Model the fold of this input.
Amino acid sequence: MTVPDIVVPGQLLGPSSKYVPGPGTHLIASQIYASLAGRPNVVPPLSKDQDPKSSASRPTISVPRLSSALPNYSVTSLNVSNSNILPTVGSIVICRVTRLMTRQVNVAILIVGGESGEEQVCGDELQGVIRREDIRATEKEKVVVGEGFRVGDIVRGIVISLGDQHNYYLSTAKNEYGVIIAKSEVGNTMVPISWKGFRDPVTGLTETRKAAKPI
Done:
């Protein structure tokens, strides 16, 4: 995969077998994700060591902060050339949870994946909904929205319907969709431990989430 020009928190940058994670990134299950909004920077390796297990033989990828005024992962202040990108049915999107309700999750769509596999940052945040029956593929009647998501979570999903004039309908039912970045109640970035939970590496406490399988 190619490194995107602009990324937001939670966007996949590449595997740790190819890059060394630098500032503005974090490592989850051997995959490197952006922890800041900005333009990724790849620095060539310092050594010509051919051992792939050696960090000196891999380039370092980092994400310098593009702007100090990016509250709540908002990307509306970014200078994005294509501000009219819109999702279609089947588009893979990265979004931020903005509200939890009994039967649905409200999200702001930040990134839209195109047919070519490239990801583009939305010029304006688009609104989406994940209905309770679209959160997971099995035992849908047992799903509790608040156990799968929390406000502020970064989620990977797929557009299943263009919905109404206000919201796109999304699904996280497949294994590769769900929460990709979550912070604990005390504010630490957690790591996934299963498809239904994350752990705070500092406190050791776990929290329930519908976790996405790393891709």
Q: What stands out?
A: Helices lie at 145-148. The longest helix spans residues 145-148. The mean pLDDT is 82.
